[in-house]
Design goal:
Helices cover about 40% and strands about 10% of the residues. It has helices spanning about 20-35, 55-70, 85-90, 110-115, 140-155, 175-185, 205-210, 215-230, 240-250; strands at about 1-5, 35-40, 75-80, 95-100, 120, 165-170, 195-200, 235. It is globular and about 45 Å long.
Length: about 250
């Protein structure tokens, strides 16, 4: 999954694509490098992020999603927590809604079911906008598993088929550095019967895992580590990272 941030303030690449056409060119480069999913985000969820109104999020997203659906067969995912934004994205042809809020917004699961779309159900430290709220308690990983199990069951009750759901234990969202590493090394344990997505690209935990290693190389190393631990998909930035991962995972 290649990350395409159409935001002015994302932690690693905010403001990189001043026009929809520039964003689409980068997306096509990621597909050429080996990405099978392009995840378009129009609201930064970095620590301390400022929520973006749905109207602005939609304004940033729609031109990019609309063009992508015309020029690539790669799946288009939209990273949003808002039902209103998801409605607009699905109407523009998005294939997947990637929700860091775990489908907790009213109507989100029902919308995805009605559209026949895929869903990424992600875990965060708290409900939006407190996605980075610090988790507390002796069994962080068990709490993540229970949350994902509950939200998968909720999505299925709303009509989303199990085969359309991916789960993401949410590396970097309210977890300690030690917990983040444990999540990566036990990726398969979060499955709940669904494929597991791990997103560790350019995150602070990499410096703890691989001190002194360049962030791009560390992203490759951590992503391969997650894949070896049972992750079905990794979410990453950077053409060189995608090329190296694609060559390593798909010879």
């Amino acid at each position: 999954m290649g990350v395409l941030n159409v935001t002015p303030d994302s932690f690693s690449d905010g403001g990189s694509y001043p026009t929809a056409e520039a964003a689409v060119r980068h997306a096509l480069d990621m597909v050429e490098a080996g990405a099978s999913v392009i995840d378009v985000g129009a609201e930064s969820t970095r620590p301390g992020f400022a929520p973006v109104p749905a109207e602005e999020e939609i304004r940033r997203l729609l031109p990019v999603v609309s063009i992508l659906k015309q020029v690539t067969d790669a799946a288009v995912s939209v990273d949003t927590v808002k039902t209103e934004t998801a409605t607009a994205a699905l109407s523009a042809g998005a294939d997947i809604i990637n929700d860091m809020n775990g489908l907790r917004s009213p109507g989100m699961a029902e919308l995805i079911a009605e559209a026949g779309a895929g869903a990424v159900i992600a875990h965060s430290g708290g409900p939006y906008p407190d996605l980075h709220a610090e988790m507390r308690g002796p069994d962080t990983l068990g709490g993540i598993r229970r949350f994902l199990e509950e939200r998968v069951a909720y999505a299925c009750d709303a009509g989303v088929p199990m085969g359309s759901i991916i789960v993401d234990p949410g590396v970097g969202f309210g977890k300690t550095m030690e917990d983040n590493i444990r999540i990566i090394d036990s990726s398969a344990s979060f499955s709940c019967g669904c494929p597991v997505l791990i997103g560790v690209s350019r995150k602070r935990v990499l410096a703890h895992m691989y001190p002194g290693v360049d962030a791009e190389k560390a992203t490759v190393m951590a992503s391969l580590r997650a894949a070896e631990a049972g992750a079905s998909m990794v979410r990453v930035h950077g053409l060189s990272v995608i090329e190296e991962l694609h060559g390593s995972i798909i010879p």
